[in-house]
Amino acid sequence: MYERCSVKLADMGIFHSANSCRDKIKKLKQDYKKIKDYNNKSGNSSGEAGQLSGLETSELSPPDRNSSTCSSPFPPSKRKRKRARADNFIDTIVAMEDRRAEASKENEDRRAMVSKEIREEQLVHSRKAQEAEEQLLMVMARQADVSARQVEQQNTFQIGLLGVLSELVKSNRPSSL
């Protein structure tokens, strides 16, 4: 029973262990008994003086599903109020589950939107990286062209210089040889 209580609370986003659920229910029962005893001693047993004056012991324990007749010691008018409280409790639980479902849907929508934004940012960064890589390749191609022209100019200069030196050497040679 306490494990189921813990699981239901976890479904609502409230995380407590089965032991803490057991301790809380035990504490509620103790408080109920103290208030009931106090009300009996002070004469407030029929009034609304206590914190849990409307809460009955049978509400704290599971219902007897095998019983075909109502075994409540309270008159039918009190049983109706109990039933109404149970209906209100169920309505509250249903409303809480609806709110949780709405919140879950909103969270899913937010996650989907954030995921889409992240994918778009990744595409933008990928495009920028590709553009940067293309620019780098263009710069490297230009540098290679410049280097090739420099090498060609150096070769032309060296060939020309060798030609000039060769003519100087020929002109400075004595013709007698």
TrEMBL record:
Residue span(s) of domain Myb/SANT-like DNA-binding: 2-44
Keyword DNA-binding carried by entry: yes
Example of a GO MF term: DNA binding
InterPro entries: Myb_DNA-bind_4 (IPR044822)
Pfam family, one: Myb_DNA-bind_4
Presence of keyword Iron-sulfur: no
Keywords per UniProt: DNA-binding
Disordered, as annotated region: 37-87
Polar residues compositional bias, start-end: 40-70
Top-rank taxon: Eukaryota
Extent of the signal sequence: none
Protein name: Myb/SANT-like DNA-binding domain containing protein 2
